[in-house]
């Protein structure tokens, strides 16, 4: 190393040779600074005006040396600091870049591992997932089949307990072709005239109807196939006795039942279109509503209107409508399918029950105050033709009913 230094410090200044570091101090040759870093030799010459000629070195020296020639204006100390800072900054930047690249590489590796883990979990458990889906589908089908079977069982039960089937009802109407709407209205007025309080026994009701029919068309005029009507009357009376009270909440002793109940059962023999049958049932409800109003206002058991058998009430209450639906239900004039409603028991299988009149005719009061629960003729016909009631199977006809059909 000393030999290399001696060789470097020898040079020619303005054509003359010098070997001293202090020679050419007047601007020809100035001091030379050596900096060793990482086993490399750095030589800095501080003379821009000096013509320095470095001796030829051996290849080994050039391989281990780093020469940097800078201007003479800067002092040796600052140049040494610059050289050192540049080397350090290069080292730090190289280290930081290596760390950043390694961090990014690790993040990518982690993401790839996660993706591979997710993909491998799905493919590793593909068979289990497939079996789980198939089991869920099979369980849902079994549950749906069990719920349908429960509903069909209840429908079969309702059909078995029905005392009159639709075929017998059709035969009853055809056999009583003489019992038209006008004749039935006359019977209705005479019954309410004779029983102004709206209740009577079944025997008294039959006598009143027979007298009216004889007065209209003679002794030969009677209810054909009357045993079907009697069969239903007995069933309804037994149900009313078990309940202990009537549908509208009034108590009846000595087999006294609402006249509207007997008239509703008698409409089974009415030979007419559906709209005429609906009008007659609505007139029955009007009479019952009139009697109820007079009873609530303490006007006595009868008035001029009720004595004449005419009702002046234009609307009926929703409670009266529900009572009429209950009478139709008891007299087998509603299809079994529409009476079946689901219960709150849905698991493990759906359970069903026979709906009560309040459930078959849901009604929510509007914003009209006290008149919101009053029903007109058109609304009454809409309720009877709805899918939840479907009186006489009217809901199965695929056509829209207008007010003209009422």
UniProtKB/TrEMBL annotation:
Keywords: Membrane, Transmembrane, Transmembrane helix. Residues 93-104 have a biased composition (Low complexity). Residues 93-113 are annotated as: Disordered. The chain crosses the membrane at residues 121-142. This is Uncharacterized protein.
């Amino acid at each position: 190393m000393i030999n290399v230094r001696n060789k470097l410090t020898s040079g020619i200044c303005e054509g003359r040779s010098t070997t001293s570091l202090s020679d050419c101090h007047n601007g020809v040759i100035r001091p030379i600074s050596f900096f060793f870093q990482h086993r490399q030799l750095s030589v800095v010459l501080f003379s821009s005006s000096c013509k320095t000629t470095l001796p030829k070195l051996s290849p080994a020296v050039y391989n281990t040396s780093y020469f940097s020639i800078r201007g003479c204006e800067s002092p040796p100390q600052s140049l040494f600091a610059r050289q050192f800072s540049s080397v350090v900054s290069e080292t730090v930047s190289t280290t930081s870049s290596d760390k950043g690249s390694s961090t990014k590489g690790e993040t990518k590796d982690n993401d790839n591992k996660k993706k591979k883990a997710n993909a491998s979990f799905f493919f590793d458990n593909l068979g289990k997932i497939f079996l789980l889906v198939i089991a869920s589908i099979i369980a849902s089908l079994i549950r749906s089949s069990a719920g349908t079977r429960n509903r069909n069982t209840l429908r079969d039960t309702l059909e078995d307990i029905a005392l009159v089937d639709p075929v017998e009802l059709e035969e009853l109407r055809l056999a009583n072709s003489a019992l038209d709407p006008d004749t039935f209205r006359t019977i209705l007025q005479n019954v309410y005239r004779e029983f102004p309080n709206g209740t009577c026994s079944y025997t008294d009701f039959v006598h009143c109807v027979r007298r009216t029919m004889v007065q209209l068309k003679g002794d030969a005029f009677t209810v054909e196939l009357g045993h079907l009507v009697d069969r239903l009357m007995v069933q309804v009376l037994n149900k009313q006795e078990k309940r202990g009270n009537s549908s509208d909440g009034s108590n009846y002793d000595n087999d006294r039942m609402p006249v509207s109940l007997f008239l509703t059962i008698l409409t089974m023999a009415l030979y007419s279109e559906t709209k005429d049958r609906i009008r007659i049932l609505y007139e029955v409800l009007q009479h019952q509503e009139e009697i109820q109003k007079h009873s609530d206002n303490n006007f006595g058991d009868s008035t001029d209107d009720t004595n004449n058998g005419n009702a002046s009430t234009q609307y009926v209450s929703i409670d009266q409508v529900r009572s009429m639906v209950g009478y139709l239900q008891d007299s087998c004039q509603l299809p079994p399918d529409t009476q079946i409603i689901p219960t709150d028991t849905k698991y493990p299988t759906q359970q069903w029950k026979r709906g009560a009149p309040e459930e078959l005719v849901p009604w929510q009061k509007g914003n009209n105050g006290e008149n919101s629960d009053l029903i007109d003729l058109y609304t009454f016909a809409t309720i009877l033709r709805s899918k939840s009631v479907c009186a006489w199977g009217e809901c199965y006809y695929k056509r829209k009913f207008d007010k003209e059909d009422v």
